[in-house]
């Protein structure tokens, strides 16, 4: 197990270097000159030239990449042109918001998707299976922004139970914090639950037809034990993969949902940075997102070994 982790971590290093090159190179294709944007409306040539030298924009592309990577290795992701704040500080401010929203959405998705998939597989061809598939189709077909607007109209405008938008820190008021995130979390979790349900159903149907499951039933084991202990455990591998990828997508920023509910998370940060040509923020957020995806894949590999002992060897 230790050797496996060492090999996987060793693979992450060159992958991160390649990703950083792609991020930096593609960033240069965006239109606009950061020095002119920072110089203001007058764009005095002397000021523009000074800013270009300060930000190393007059250097060749490989040299600029070396400067940027040198800062990244020291924990310096640059400075926001618009806010005049370190990019790392902005990420630290926004990450807890998106992290909590993603955790709540993933919890809702797991609580709905996996049980629905199990019930649909066990009751294949029954009304439960039909209902689960209808729910899955509805979740996959419903746009997040449209569902979010409907929830706002129902629970905020008509019933007045929940706030229509905004965010309250859990350190200020935990109750208000949960009320402000429950609707966007359900919107995001609803779509992921539909995907999880379909994958769980497919994996369970394949496992339930395996020889060892028939043997367990022939031994006279309780059906619940057969389904939850023998079948589900072996069906979890593709579900773990999907869950890790979906959680990474949530952490990268649910742009539309955060815009609808005015949640100041990663999604709003990256959208504002792109519109303002804030290159340092875009590079920093994308690099953090890519790193998060890789770490989640590593955790998924570790989870495989925990669920299926045969993979440890």
Stretches with pLDDT under 50, minimum 5 residues = none
Helix segment tally = 13
Provide the helix percentage. Answer: over 70%
* Major beta-sheet overview: none
Shape: globular
Order of helices and strands: HHHHHHHHHHHHH
Radius of gyration: 24 Å
Keywords for this entry:
mainly alpha, 313 residues, single chain, 76% helix, 0% strand
Can you put this structure into words, describing what you see?
The chain has about 325 residues and is mainly alpha-helical. The chain has helices at about 1-25, 35-40, 45-55, 60-75, 85-120, 125-140, 145-160, 175-210, 210-220, 225-250, 255-260, 265-275, 280-305. Helix 10 runs antiparallel to helix 13. About 25% of the residues are buried.
Give a quick summary of the entry.
The chain has helices at 2-27, 34-39, 45-54, 61-73, 87-122, 127-141, 144-158, 174-208, 211-218, 223-251, 255-260, 266-275, 279-307. It is mostly helical.
Indicate the topology.
Blueprint: H1 2-27, H2 34-39, H3 45-54, H4 61-73, H5 87-122, H6 127-141, H7 144-158, H8 174-208, H9 211-218, H10 223-251, H11 255-260, H12 266-275, H13 279-307
């Amino acid at each position: 197990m230790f050797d496996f982790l060492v090999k996987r971590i060793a693979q992450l290093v060159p992958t991160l270097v390649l990703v950083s090159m792609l991020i930096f190179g593609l960033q240069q294709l965006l239109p606009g000159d950061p020095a002119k944007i920072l110089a203001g409306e007058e764009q005095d040539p002397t000021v523009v030239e000074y800013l270009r030298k300060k930000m190393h924009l007059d250097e060749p592309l490989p040299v600029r990449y070396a400067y940027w990577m040198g800062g990244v290795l020291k924990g310096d992701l640059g400075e926001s042109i618009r806010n005049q704040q370190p990019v790392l500080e902005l990420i630290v401010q926004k990450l807890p918001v998106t992290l909590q929203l993603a955790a709540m959405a993933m919890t809702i998705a797991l609580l709905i998707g996996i049980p629905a998939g199990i019930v649909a597989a066990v009751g294949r061809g029954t009304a439960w299976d039909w209902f689960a598939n209808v729910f899955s189709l509805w979740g996959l077909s419903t746009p997040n922004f449209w569902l979010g607007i409907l929830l706002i109209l129902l629970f905020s405008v008509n019933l007045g139970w929940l706030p229509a938008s905004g965010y309250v820190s859990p350190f200020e008021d935990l109750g208000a914090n949960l009320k402000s995130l429950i609707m966007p979390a359900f919107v995001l979790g609803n779509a992921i639950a539909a995907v999880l349900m379909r994958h769980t159903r497919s994996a369970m149907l394949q496992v339930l037809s395996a020889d060892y499951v028939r043997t367990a039933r022939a031994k006279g084991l309780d059906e619940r034990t057969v389904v939850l202990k023998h079948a589900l455990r072996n069906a979890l591998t593709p579900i773990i993969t999907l869950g890790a990828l979906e959680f990474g997508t949530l952490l990268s920023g649910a742009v539309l949902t955060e815009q609808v509910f005015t949640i100041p998370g990663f999604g709003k940060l990256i959208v504002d940075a792109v519109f303002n040509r804030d290159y340092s923020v875009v590079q920093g957020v994308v690099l953090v997102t890519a790193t998060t995806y890789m770490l989640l894949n590593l955790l998924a590999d570790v989870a495989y070994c925990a669920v299926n002992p045969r993979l440890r060897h």
